Sequence to fold (136 residues):
Amino acid sequence: MQNTDSLSLQQKLQWSLFSLRLGVFIVMFVWTLDKFINPGHGSKILQHFYGVEGVGESMVYLFGALQLVLVLAFLAGIKKRISYGLVLLMHAGSTFSSYAKYFDAFNNLLFFAAWPMLAACLALYLLRDEDTKFTL
Fold:
């Protein structure tokens, strides 16, 4: 006999996926805000990690605006194949572009936090049809 006080597996899955989506959103949202609060930092990141030089503040603001639309769509569960997929690709690009930091692990420990977040992004993408808690 099933305990009626316990959550069903489907409910546990939905809450788990929502918590992953919310956690990934928080990180991505802060990264997005950084583009508006400190666009010079965004330019430096593009140059250092992606080899893109000469990106001005207006372009960083544009990237930030596009990223804001994406992360809000991701949070709301809108067009999941696209929004979850783009968040996965964006974070994968960020994780892999930092490869040099992993060779000096003990001076760059925070960079390793990218790997469980990448796993969360992949899980969300693969299970996107099951992620229905608080989605539009």
About this structure: The chain has six helices and no strands.
